[in-house]
Amino acid sequence: MLLVSQKIGLENSFRPTRSLNSEYSSEVKSLGHFDENILLKGLNATRFSENRTREFLSTNTFYRFRDFTGAFDVRRTDGKLAAITFAKTFGRTFINFDVWP
Question: What are phi and psi of 36, to 5 degrees?
């Protein structure tokens, strides 16, 4: 997840383990242990509970459809709508940040 438009105070929410992409920001780190509420603070995220299906451009060869339930809507500074979802699998938490065209 890359947030270039605003700084978020994540001082106590995670232990940085390595840089994700130093091309954009030296402050963007991978997240070790974190708190969802702290991560979403300042983003004006709105939780939605209904089922949504969106088509998005995959980094793979094919387009995929993705179903969302219990995600968070976030409006970027350029006006595009995005959804943030959290998934816990095999003891790890994954953060998905999907931006709609």
Answer: -55, -40
CA-to-CA distance for 77 and 34, rounded, in angstroms? 24
Tell me which of 90 and 51 has the higher pLDDT: 90
Hey, which residues does 75 pair with through a beta bridge? 81
Under 8 Å CB-to-CB from 91, ≥6 apart: which residues? none
The model's pTM is 0.52
Task: Find the angle CA(17)-CA(19)-CA(21) to the nearest 5 degrees.
Answer: 155
59 versus 21: which is more confidently predicted?
Answer: 59
- 1, 33, 36, 41: which is closest to 15 by C-alpha? 33
Under the banding of pLDDT at 50, 70 and 90, the label for residue 22 is very low
For residue 22, CA distances in Å to 19, 27, 37, 49, 60 come to 6, 8, 25, 35, 23
Q: Assign residue 93 a region: left if phi > 0, alpha if psi is -120 to 50, beta otherwise?
A: beta
The neighbour count for residue 75, using CB atoms within 10 Å, is 13
